Automatic annotation (TrEMBL):
<dbReference type="Pfam" id="PF11148">
    <property type="entry name" value="DUF2922"/>
</dbReference>
<protein>
    <submittedName>
        <fullName>DUF2922 domain-containing protein</fullName>
    </submittedName>
</protein>
<dbReference type="InterPro" id="IPR021321">
    <property type="entry name" value="DUF2922"/>
</dbReference>
């Protein structure tokens, strides 16, 4: 299973992780950065007055391989 994992800074300065399963891998890193940067200004996710996904810091594709044992 492939997923996009992005690390954000909250408006309070803490770290927050967000992931998306089965992402479109045809986007360039610059395009992905631009898309993730659009999440912050929406202020959709707040906790204790802090925007949880304020600034995109990094992102990576993570692939998990499962091996069925029995």
């Amino acid at each position: 299973m492939l997923k996009l994992v992005a690390n954000f800074k909250t408006s309070g300065g803490n770290s927050q992780t967000w992931s998306l399963p089965n992402p479109d891998t045809t986007n360039t890193p610059a395009e992905l950065k631009g898309l993730l940067d659009q999440i912050g200004p929406l202020e959709l996710f707040n906790k204790d007055g802090n925007n949880l996904y304020d600034t995109a810091e990094s992102a990576m594709f993570v692939e998990t391989n499962e091996t069925i044992l029995f």
